[in-house]
Amino acid sequence: MTVQSEFAAADDGRLPRFARSRRFLLGRPCDLQFAAEPARLLFLRSMAADDPVVGLWSLDPGTGTEGLLADPRALLAGADEAIPPAESRRRERMRESGRGIVAYSACADGRLVTFALSGRLFVCEVGTGDTRALSATGPGVDPQLSPDGTAVAFLGGNALRVMTLDGQAILELSDPDPEVSFGAAEFGAAEEMGRHHGFWWSPDSRHLLVSRISEHDVPSWWLSDPSAAAAQPVRQRYPFAGTTDPRVELLLASLDGRITDVDLPYRDFPYLLAVRWEPARRPLLVLHSRGHGRSEIRAVDPGSGASELLAADSDPDWLELLPGTPRWLPGGSGVLRASHSEDTHRLVADDVPVTPPGLQVLSVAGFVADRAIFVATTEPTERHVFSVDVHSGEITRLTSVPGVHGVTVLGDLLAVSSETLQDDGVTVRLLDGAREVTVLRSLAQQAFTPGVRLLAVGERELRTAVIFPRDDTRPPGPLPVVMDPYGGPLSQRVLRASRLFYEPQWLADQGFVVVVADGRGSPARGPRWERAFRFDVATPALDDQVAALEEVARRYPGEIDSSRVGIRGWSFGGYLAALAVLRRPDVFAAAIAGAPVTDWRWYDTVASERYLGDPAEHPDAYERCSLLPLAAGLSRPLLFVHGLADDNVHPRHTLQLSRELFVAGRDHELLLLTGVTHMVWQPEVVEHLLTVHARFFRRWLARDPQ
Residue 328 falls within a domain, yes or no? Predict the structure, then answer.
């Protein structure tokens, strides 16, 4: 029996379509905002299901009529988009693979919108669609329109610049020191903290809060492309575990030129996680200690720069910011924030919990009158939209269909996005109270429906997805298994959303049973579950994958061959895949490790120290979780894949482990991708890489490999 006859490939054109459509995600509406004058719903959406170019659109909620406000190809007169390096880095941190208008900023009433395209700044009148270029000097990145619509602030090199819409310069914050920059989100904030901006307008449009970043003592790493030998390497300031972070300070800049330092406890709380400046309120800041064990919420006086402590929290392990918090409570001086008690992430208003134990709050979207709109769950595979009266604590559930639901607050309206396992794509409904106003159209390609079986397995009830080959591609007999985890913190793979299982279904159709399991550390199951990773990110993650595999094999007797198990993953999943064949070759027969962290001493401070502590204080934790000491024990096939332009998990991780394996005389395979970052999006790379995965597992998991 040959490999090809046992593993009949499902060659129906799905893989090229999957790759070209950015994993069937192109055409989905995103970044919704409401414009009051005239009443319009603004959003971004690519031009077609297989077109990566994103345009700015509007929808009339009264008639349901859509209009294309800004077409990138027309604005560039057919020229190719030229993305400045700073914009490329910003998109990498946001995992944005689209082209064209991928972000925009509107004034307070939504009359005007600004965006960057090919480093040029544009402003669009929402009512008419008239769009014109602004006369900024040099490439502009991350433009933000003032609330009154009279000025735009943007990043130009290391400077923050502000100008009127007719091109008159108002303000510039800059420094001749090349290691000092203004207004950008430093690496740790953008990659690990979810903060992608470094400047914020005041509601009266007269001031800005601006970050000043000094990187003098931050270590330098270099990225180069060996295939372009004449190109200079790119220098990157990268704070890895135990080294110096950038120094981030806040300034209050007035448009009349006055600059005021914001008084904050930088020594004890060097991490700025969030800034929110609401009308008629002082700006709110969230600060964390370096180890994330202490947190403060402070309000800043816009006149003096003095700050007031509003709330503080501490945890023996670590704290995390709940997206969308903190917020000022309507009509009062209190704050809506997140805290945890009774093993539950809860909302707290004026220090009183307003959500019950067992309802894990995941994010807050905003307020409609006195009701906070938030996303939460009691079942980890689902996400639902709720509202809570912050005075009475009365909770209303706004979604009921099993699936993944999100929400955007648009004034008094709600835009609820919904995904399920049964339906392709996403549905966005515009709601006025309980009344549906209209449905926002998705252009996403109609894909196949994955056949997913969701389970809660073992004593820890690990949420697990099992994907068999479709009937027309399924070979006879017990099938080999490919475990396909992420397996790490802050991310889930097992949710009731079909988009998560297109790729596993394609792989299953090549003749495998694909198993995806979310173990300890994943969100939506409470603080105790998440903190199982403290001082050891390896053992709980690997043990849970083995437990999920054993239980799946028990539930499907005769259908799964647990003597032929492969594992693959990317990023933390790549680390887990390599760990699996190094520690448990008795279970795992082959592995593909994509962009793996191989030694946590070389990963960024924010993530590494959150879970493993300071390496000077806890060297045993880093040694316990490193893959390098395990190299001499490799006895199973292992394929490394790494992009040479990866500025998140630097290629040195793979190359150092490869060196250790070579010195130990352990055969392995190495696939280095030129020009590819941590975010693999290029269609030709995605298509070929998945083909490589299928061939690798066919070769090593077949009954009779030839």
Answer: no
